[histone H3]-lysine(4) N-trimethyltransferase (Periophthalmus magnuspinnatus), 432 residues
Amino acid sequence: MGSIKGLERFDSPGKGRGLRVTKAFKVGELLFSCPAYSSVLAVEERGSFCEFCFNRKQGLARCGKCKKASYCNAKCQKADWPMHKLECSAMIAFGEKWCPSEICRLVARILVKKKSQKEISSSEKMMQVGEMQSHLEDMDNKRREISESDIAQLHQFYSKHLDFPDHQELLSLFSQVSCNGFTIEDEELSHLGTAVYPDVALINHSCLPNTIITFNGTSAEIRAVKDIKPGDEVFISYIDLLYPTDDRNNRLRESYYFTCQCQECQSRSQDKVKLKVRKRSDPIEEEVVNNMERYARKAIKEFRASKHYRNILFELLEICEQSLEKMGSVFEDSNVYMLHMMYQAMGVCLYMQDIDEAIKYGEKLIKPYSQLYSPLSLNLSSIYLKLGRLYMTMDSHSAGVKMLKKAMAIMEVAHGKDHLYMEELRKEIAQK
Ligand SMILES: [Zn+2]
Ligand SMILES: [Zn+2]
Ligand SMILES: [Zn+2]
C-alpha cells in the first residue's frame, strides 16, 4: 500500500477506519487530490461535458456511432472507449428503452476496471476499493429492492460486455458503491455524475468538518476549511448541514448506517435557530409547532418524490408556494424548512426561465444561509454564484459583481486559486 505525505490511516475510536494528519494544514491548503477510480457522467449532462474528463465546453465532438457521448477530442474519446463500449452499441440497440440507473452504469465500469487493473491504482494509496464498507447486513428491505432492480438492469443492459460475479458479490458491490460513492457536482452544486474515490472514502463524517471536497474534472480534492493540527482526524460532511440534528441523523442512518456523535450533534446548539418559530403576542403552542414540523418533513419528502417530473413545473411551484404559506403561519422565514422550499421554488423558477421570481427567492435565502451555514460552505458560495449570474443576465451589473465576488472569496479557499472555475469567474466579473 502506498501513502500520501502528511496523512495516515488509523483506527478512529468508535468510527472504525479513519484518516488523520501527521502535519499541520492551514485553511485553504490541499490535503490531497484523488483521481476517480471510476466515474460516470449523468445522462442529462451529455453534450455539455466531456464523457471522459468532465471538461465543460462548447463544441464537443459526438461519438460517431451512438451520437450520444461527446468528447473534447480524439484523445479523450480513445481513453474512454474501454468504458464507453459498454454502452455505445447497447444504446443503439435499446434506443429509448435504454435506461440503467447511474449507480448501475458506475458498477458496470467498476467491474471492467477490477478485471483489467493489474496494479493498485493511484486512487487507492491508503484504502483499496475492495476494502470499502458494504453494510450489506444493515440493508433494509427498501434498499435491498433497489439493489435487486439495479442488478436486473445490469443484466439487461450490460450482459454483452461483462462477465458477472455471483449475485451476493454484486449485491455487496452495489451496497459498497451506494455507501461510498460520491456525487460529482459543479460550482452551482448541480449534479454532474457519480464516482468512486477509495482514499476519500476513508474520511469519516462530522457536522463540523475540518475539510471540504471539491471536484476538478473527475478528480476529488480535499482542502482544509479549518486549521488542522498534527494528529487531528480529517472530517468531511456527507450531507447537507442546513438541517437540525434529528434530520441530519435520520439522513445519515438511512444512507450511511450510523449516528453522528460530533459536538454539534451532542449540543444541538443550532437547532433552535434552525427551527425558528414566529414571535407573536400569544405564543404558539408546542403541539402546533410539532405538527407543523411533521408537516414540513412530509412536504419535503413529497416534493422530492415528484421533483423528477419536469412536465409539471407549475404544479411543483404550487406545492412550494402552498407549503410556504402554510408553514409561514408558524415558522419564521429563516426556518430551515421555509428555506428548503424557497430553494426548491428558486430551482423550479430557473427551469421555467422566470428570472425575476428566481431572484426573489434567491434574495430571501442569502441572509439566513450566511448565518446557518459555515462561512466556507459550498452551499453558500453556490447561492451567491447563482444569484450573481442571474443579476448579470438581467444586466444588473453591480449587484451581480457583488454576489460573484462573495462566491469567489469562498471558492478561492474551497476550490483553490488555480481552479478553472476561478478563471471563469474572473472573466464573468470583468465583463460589461
Ligand atoms: Zn475530455
Ligand atoms: Zn458511442
Ligand atoms: Zn454531527
User: Anything to note?
Assistant: The pocket of zinc ion (ligand 3) is lined by residues 206-207, 260, 262, 264-265 (CB under 6 Å). Residues 244 and 272 are 8 Å apart (CA to CA). The radius of gyration is 22 Å.
